[in-house]
What we know:
It holds the Pfam family HTH_23. This is Helix-turn-helix domain-containing protein. Helices cover 62% and strands 13% of the residues. It is of the alpha+beta class. Helix 2 packs parallel to helix 5, helix 4 packs across helix 5 and helix 5 packs across helix 6.
Amino acid sequence: xxxxxxxxxxxxxxxxxxxxxxxxxxxxxxxxxxxxxxxxxxxxxxxxxxxxxxxxxxxxxxxxxxxxxxxxxxxxxxxxxxxxxxxxxxxxxxxxxxxxxxxxxxxxxxxxxxxxxxxxxxxxxxxxxxxxxxxxxxxxxxxxxxxxxxxxxxxxxxxxxxxx
Length: 164
């Protein structure tokens, strides 16, 4: 038999339906560990198959990237605000159909929480909560040195004070 027996991947997953299921799990946000569990394989096998089978690696990677882009776009939209149309419809008793009664254009202002999240992740040097500088570290070391230098004097009772 040339080439040996087919691998479990080739038998079970290397087909349109198998790759579509894998891509769907990735698109739905499952972790690699969860996908491996759904496939009935170990995580190390999943990583090995990613290296060995490009179609498998592509199904995982491309599906995750698409969802990540959708989430990034939604976060961006939420951060900067957007305009939308709100329609009100009522049921027409005579025809039994929905009839457009009112159409209003509304604006959703930017969400400051989304803005903060975006900026902290996109520009961490400018927007992280705590900014540390070299001078902060130097001042802290000076204070620690000053405190430590006074410890031996306090232990011996020598306060450099003289009685007059």
